[in-house]
Amino acid sequence: MSEKNESSENTETMADALKSVETVHIGDTVKGEVLAVEDKQLVVGIEGTGVEGVVPLKELSTQPIDDINSVAKVGDKLDLVVISTIGKDKENGQYLLSKRRLEAQKVWKDIQAKADAGETITAPVTSVVKGGLVVNAGVRGFVPASMVSDHFVEDLSQYKGQELEFKIIEIEPSENRLILSHRAIVEAGKAEARKEIFAKIQPGDTVEGKVARLTNFGAFVDLGGVDGLVHVSEISFDHVDKPSDVLKVGQDIKVKVLAVDPDRNRISLSINNVAAALG
């Protein structure tokens, strides 16, 4: 074979090889084989391209990772998305890749499906920030302070670390915005409890409850999801100036049902009548 023909054949072989190598674009989903596991990143070979990329530790998962070796080893093949290039030499340079963002895309789709179906989600509260709670729903979710409970909560730190159920209020994946409400869950639960209690409670019944809050005109008693009112005149046969002189929040008491008004969600209670009946 002449040198000219050999040179021509080599040129065609190189050209064929170049044609078979896919070009990597930002935003592409690629398959990467782990070539090396370092302290803060993975080095991967992007299949079908002949180039390498890196996956920083923070881009490996939507969940916190303490040990990079617990999530990947040499030889693993990962689905990744191309975030950007590293360096100016795109042919020989590396690409910045992410596994976390692919996971997040799936999470957003799952949350959107639940929102469309009217379903709720359950997620842990990871931190308390100014104006509300931050939760980890696979992606960052935010619960405004006004949507944490059905009453004002002065200290939100009590919720940190708790796993709560949430209604999806607003979802916008393109802006990484997920607004959630626990208040809606609390209200729905109380509405169901009210329905059950009003269906079975009758005037004349003696029931047990817990003092929920005190006012100048009486005490509100939690009957298991519904608050009934003991007017100050029904607390004792003796004169009572302030309910707080006799009762305290959290106290377990027995009360007698005086009247039930489902239309106005009101239950009138008495401590006097219980004492009289026992006496």
Structure in words:
With 279 residues, the protein is α+β, with helices and mostly antiparallel strands. It has three domains: 3-98, Beta Barrel (OB fold (Dihydrolipoamide Acetyltransferase, E2P)), CATH 2.40.50.140; 103-186, Nucleic acid-binding proteins (OB fold (Dihydrolipoamide Acetyltransferase, E2P)); 201-278, OB fold (Dihydrolipoamide Acetyltransferase, E2P), CATH 2.40.50. It is 22% helix and 38% strand. It contains four helices and 15 strands. The longest helix is centred in the first third of the chain and has 18 residues, at 3-20.
Task: Walk me through the topology.
Layout: H1 3-20, E1 29-37, E2 41-46, E3 51-56, E4 77-86, E5 94-98, H2 100-117, E6 121-129, E7 132-136, E8 140-144, E9 163-172, E10 177-181, H3 183-200, E11 206-215, E12 218-222, E13 227-231, E14 252-261, E15 266-270, H4 272-278
Parallel strand pairs: 3-5, 13-15
Antiparallel strand pairs: 1-2, 1-4, 2-3, 4-5, 6-7, 6-9, 7-8, 9-10, 11-12, 11-14, 12-13, 14-15
Given as residue ranges, the uncertain stretches (5+ residues, pLDDT < 50) are 14-21
What distance lies between the first and last C-alpha atoms, to the nearest angstrom? 121 Å
Radius of gyration: 32 Å
**CATH C-level of the largest domain:** Mainly Beta
Please tell me the total number of domains: 3
* Number of discrete helical segments: 4
